[in-house]
């Protein structure tokens, strides 16, 4: 059986998942990659350990978990930046991490100087289908666009850097 090579988004998702597991010992349940012209946003779903989730149940604990992950990201993002350059051919100008401690979601944003606003939506149906919908507005669903890549895709080996 002839396997197709991984897309850039899939490669980035595998690297992000592997780095998260190396840093915390806990792999995310899925990784979503959004790659624009000058922006890369990597969302690690269910990325917190059970202990971090328990700690995040109150505001003080959630703040501690957020700060821990920001510091962890700041101290370990150089290797991820190098992998992004290798995969995309582009340098990372800026990087930031945001953690939603209540849901266990970790978002990494890598930009070339652009302001990035990230909104994580609740699962549901597309509400723009009504009469005020603009034909230029489109919503791609993570379950059918190939961007939500589980950490270990069946039949494929996780990406290993050379």
Low-confidence stretches: 128-162
Count of beta strands: 5
Shape, please?
Answer: globular
Helix content: 25-40%
Q: With helices defined by DSSP (H or I, 4 residues minimum), what is the helix count?
A: 3
The protein's oligomeric status is: single chain
CA-atom Rg in angstroms: 17 Å
Average pLDDT works out at 75
Order of helices and strands: HEEHHEEE
User: Which percent range describes the beta-strand content?
Assistant: 15-25%
Largest sheet: 5 strands, antiparallel
Helices and strands: which structural class?
alpha+beta
Ends distance? 25 Å
- Tell me the strand order in the biggest sheet: 3-4-2-1-5
Show the helix and strand layout.
Blueprint: H1 8-24, E1 30-35, E2 39-45, H2 50-55, H3 59-88, E3 94-100, E4 105-111, E5 148-149
Antiparallel strand pairs: 1-2, 1-5, 2-4, 3-4
